[in-house]
Amino acid sequence: LENRRVLYDKIALALALYPMLLFYLTFFTAPMAIFVAIRYWKAPSSILPRTRVRFVIALVLAVFQMAGWIALFTFLIRGLSR
Amino acid sequence: MAGREREYARLPGRGMRRGSALQVIATFSRLWLGKDHLLLVDSNGFVETYKRFSFRDIQAITLTQTRRRAILNAIFLSCAVFCGLFILLDHAAITVVFGGLLALFVLLAMINSLSAPTCRCHLTTAVQTDELPSLRRLARANRVLSRLRPLIAAAQSEAAEQGKNAPRVSVAVPLTEAQGPSS
Prior knowledge:
The structure holds two protein chains of two kinds.
Chain A: E1 4-6, H1 8-17, H2 26-39, H3 53-81
Helix pairs in contact in A: 1-2, 1-3, 2-3
Chain B: H1 2-7, E1 9-10, E2 15-16, E3 28-33, E4 37-43, E5 47-54, E6 60-65, H2 68-87, H3 92-114, E7 119-124, E8 129-131, H4 138-165
Antiparallel strand pairs in B: 1-3, 2-3, 3-4, 4-5, 6-7, 7-8
């Protein structure tokens, strides 16, 4: 009988959510959140009833954060090249 | 997933394990009801640890009333009085901030007073005694125990029946030289 489980969905969500307080950290943590969410999508979660909604929220947040960084860099590069 | 959902039913209550308040990440406990056992889940948010207590193995569940409610009330009311002293300074900004805090502490004291008396709950089996931190209010503990009592009684009477009907096995223990008759 298993007596310990790691909750990867909460780790992914924490990686996507908490660094938003200091937004520049999301540059590093957003790819980490995406990696954890994809790598452990099928990993056994809690033995109690649980959905994958935290993984989905983490993925959505991290993708938006990365999109924001890409937009910012694109804007800066275009601004410098003019 | 549907099978998993039927496996455990959540019992009311959630409590912090004692001593974990000083840790960086506190450990919270919750009880779940299984078909033939009670599941104690300790979680620090990222890792869950499980302890299963079979209904057949539970020897006792003890409730001890504590003074935690009175102590909490004393803390909340002391904080409220402390905030009240700042209001006496009669400064607009300070009055707003500390007035809000005073109201919050009075509200917490009221909620705490209206809640049931506090208690500590321990579950005993043949090999261990474990605290159940989710049952720290007497009313909630009694509610959970009234749900558990018939399940434990049924499981243990069934076990006793099986023991009565089981064939008796006698084990012959050979005498050692030291125990044997002296000749």
